[in-house]
Amino acid sequence: MNREEKSSEISILTKRLAGAKAVILAEYRGLKVSEITEIRREVKKNAGDFKVVKNRLAKRAVQGSPFAPLESHFRGPLVIATSEADPVVLSKILAKFAESFQA
Questions:
Q1: Residues 6+ apart with CB under 8 A from 38
Q2: What pTM did the predictor assign?
């Protein structure tokens, strides 16, 4: 990923966070690509976004925003789920998948 792509990712993530009514950080360790894709589809169907992020880029995206306190949580394999719609719907979807994929 070159510098221009990184800058683009940071600005996209910053915009998503700025318009989000709900932001959920989740570790995806142990999930298969097919399982992550299934979660991503379900979240997208319900007006949300589910994106695997590079921690360094996520830290830069939250700097100077109301989400700056989340910076300490950007460790390990991480996804950021956001929703501009009802925050309860996003949390219910992710809770349902968390229960079904427990190791």
A1: 97
A2: 0.85
